[in-house]
Amino acid sequence: MSGERGSLARWWDGKAEARAKFHAWWEGYEFQARGRPAAASETAPPPPVLAEPRPRAKPTGKVLVRESWPPERIKVAQMVWGDGFSFPGGIDYAVEITQALKLARDGRGLDIGCGLGGGTRAIACAYGAIVDGYDLTPELAHEGHGLSIAASLSDRAPIDFLDMDRDIFKPKHYDAALIRNTLSLISDKATLIKRVAAALKPGGRLLTVEFCLAREDAHGAALDAYRLGEATAPRLATLPVLAARIKEAGLAVLGVEDHTDTFMRTVLTGWAKIDALVKRGQLDAKEGAALIGEAELWQRRLSALRSGDLRVARILATAAQAG
Question: What CA–CA distances, in Å, run from 150 to 22, 116, 161, 198, 240?
């Protein structure tokens, strides 16, 4: 415990440097602390190990992700990304990227990889639709549905655990579907894509936003650090492979783009608030340790994106029209 407190105190003392570090990662130069040249052999100390959380919801199927989401991490994530969000984006981003789905009032939407459901609720409210949210992490799904209940949106934006052992989606039920931060976590991407494709109504649209490899032989130090630093080992494909899987599911691909720069700006916007978030006495030891761990996690991800080996794919597709 004393080591955790010492690590947290050192990070608090150096909090003025935290934002500068993220700008350094973004701009691509070596960060130098307090005028001292950064030695090539120096590495950041590992974040404190957090205790495994007590189960908050009993999943009905096999849990494929190993990420630990105790209450203190959920709190810290929302401080960085916004209320109801466990990953970058926020309300404006969620609504903006889903404009391409053309979800109409009273339409049906599917949001896979929804985390705490902040985006799910934002989409439902912005378009007047009913949006079903699913996540691979039981803790996030359980907490997210509680947030939907608290917002009186449990009917319009319910959140549930995504059980990959079962095909739970009704055929031709959805007008639009969003898959994000999910395909990169599972080996059997084709099965999930086919299930979603079958759940789309004729003319329904699918949007995917996922981490992917820049090329099949990508293998740099930053990419390796990212892979080793993830709680669940990423199952990465290239953008062309993801597009091919979508076509194989019977969908027509309307657009394929490298979404990396936009995503990185979104990440940096969230972390730009770090100086305001971290003040002495504002976070207890566990919350401070969670913030350190989250910062180190996103440092590795941003470094891998900056290296060019890791990218963010954005693919828009549509189901065939009836007749």
Answer: 34, 13, 18, 32, 41
User: What's the confidence (pLDDT) of residue 281?
Assistant: 55
**pLDDT less than 70: residues of the chain:** 1-63, 275-282, 323
Alpha helices in the chain (DSSP H): 2-13, 15-27, 71-81, 90-97, 118-127, 138-150, 189-199, 221-229, 239-248, 260-271, 274-277, 285-307
- pTM, whole model, 2 decimals? 0.82
Question: Taking the domains of the chain in order of start, what are their residue ranges?
Answer: 2-29+70-318
Q: Residue 308 gets which letter from DSSP? A: T
276 phi and psi angles, rounded to 5 deg: -75, -25
Residue 47 confidence (pLDDT): 37
pLDDT in tens, 238-265: 999 999 999 999 999 999 999 999 999 9
User: For the residues of 24-82, what is the DSSP string, one character each?
Assistant: HHHHT----GGGPPPPTT--PPPPPPPPPPPPSS--SS---------HHHHHHHHHHH-
- CATH fold for the domain made of 2-29+70-318: Rossmann fold (3.40.50)
Q: What are the backbone angles phi and psi of residue 157, rounded to the nearest 5°?
A: -145, 60
